[in-house]
Design goal:
Strand content: 15-25%
Largest sheet: 6 strands, mixed
Number of strands: 10
Number of helices: 6
Shape: globular
Mean pLDDT: 93
Distance between the termini: 21 Å
Helix content: 25-40%
Low-confidence stretches: none
Radius of gyration: 18 Å
Number of domains: 2
């Protein structure tokens, strides 16, 4: 993740946001992850379209469990989109060479799942009304053989995984920016009650343009 010195993560409006974006891509490449994961809001620009409220309201009413879907093809890297209600209307199953996988709750309709299959988008179902992130990660490992997964926001999904004890390491770029805008998303925004987690500093590095790279291990 990248943040201002006061923990905000929305770079729009920052002076010279290109500097932190360049640093971000460099650090991302250092990890060589098998896949990366974001929440619905962060993924909207990649999906290219969103479904209407009427479409989203059409939910699975049978109560019967449905199978996950793995699209045919040989994929080496993955983009996982957490989208409990199935709001994203994917126009492609690829983001810069990474195969798109939707992480959904069981409430999504059969029609929506059919649209994903038609678009060649893989999906896994984890949780009845909301996404059970622990179950989702189990399925990601089983179905796609992912061992290194990069979590890249937004703040809500970061907070959910932190609360569930599912984050091993925090890799943070601090931009030389004081944001100060009220109501902006922050690095961790957990909806549920959670306890603050201790971190162990592993690495500090000054990058170009005044960006600082910090790496922490999350204490058990």
């Amino acid at each position: 993740m990248a943040s201002s010195i006061d923990g905000r993560i929305v770079v729009d409006g920052w002076p010279e946001p290109g500097a932190v974006r360049r640093a971000y891509e460099r650090v991302h490449g250092n990890y060589a992850p098998d896949g990366w994961m974001c929440g619905r809001v962060t993924m909207e620009p990649f999906a290219k379209a969103v479904r209407s409220e009427e479409e989203v309201a059409q939910q699975n009413t049978s109560g019967a469990a449905r199978d996950d879907f793995i699209a045919p093809g040989d994929f080496e890297s993955f983009a996982f989109a957490i989208d409990a209600s199935g709001k994203l209307a994917w126009q492609s199953n690829d983001i810069d060479g990474d195969h798109v996988v939707a992480i959904l709750s069981e409430r999504v309709s059969d029609a929506y799942l059919a649209s994903l299959r038609s678009a060649g988008v893989s999906y896994v179902l984890a949780g009845r009304e909301t996404v059970d992130v622990a179950r989702a990660l189990d399925k990601i490992g089983t179905h796609f053989h992912v061992k290194t997964l990069m979590l890249e926001g937004g703040g809500a999904i970061n907070g959910s995984l932190l609360a569930a004890g599912l984050i091993d390491e925090v890799s943070l770029l601090i931009a030389p920016v004081a944001d100060g805008r009220r109501g902006m998303a922050s690095l961790f925004d957990a909806d549920e009650a959670t306890s603050p987690r201790g971190l162990t500093l592993e690495h500090v590095e000054r990058l170009e343009d005044g960006v600082v790279w910090l790496r922490y291990l999350v204490r058990a």
